[in-house]
Specification:
8-stranded antiparallel beta sheet
């Protein structure tokens, strides 16, 4: 690392947990499901941890195989907090489409940690998948 840049880092930056860029290369929200409540509705979630002392201003851009990207979707994760953001609930600037393959790039102005979770409730035997996103 550049010693001059290192000297100008704040204590929060030196002790940061996470990265400022994350990628979830595989996303898909099924439109159907057997879940009878919002908790059991098929969904994709970005679980974002901000362990810093500063708010994390986060932008999510959604990429598709056959059209231009959607977003950015903007949200804030408060200091020393976590936010579980369902992609199903992203609506500004547009809804994330169901039954469509996509990928997501998540950028933050402070380091965060991102984990990706999916609940697929299309069958009565529910399937839950969780993985850490790729850190850029």
């Amino acid at each position: 690392m550049n010693p001059v840049a290192e000297a100008h880092e704040t204590a929060d930056q030196r002790n940061a947990i996470g990265r400022t860029e994350w990628v979830i290369a595989e996303g898909h929200i099924p439109s159907g499901g057997t879940g009878g409540s919002p908790a059991l509705e098929s969904h994709e979630t970005a679980c974002i941890l901000n362990a810093s002392d500063s708010p994390a201003n986060v932008e999510i851009t959604i990429y598709f195989s056959d059209r231009e990207p959607a977003g950015p979707y903007r949200l804030t994760v408060q200091p020393r907090r976590t936010l579980h953001q369902r992609f199903n609930d992203l609506s500004d600037p547009e809804d994330v489409p169901r039954d469509t393959d996509y990928a997501a790039v998540i950028r933050s102005d402070v380091p965060v940690v991102v984990q990706h979770t999916r609940l697929d409730s299309r069958q009565s035997a529910l399937a839950l998948l969780s993985t850490v996103a790729w850190a850029g």
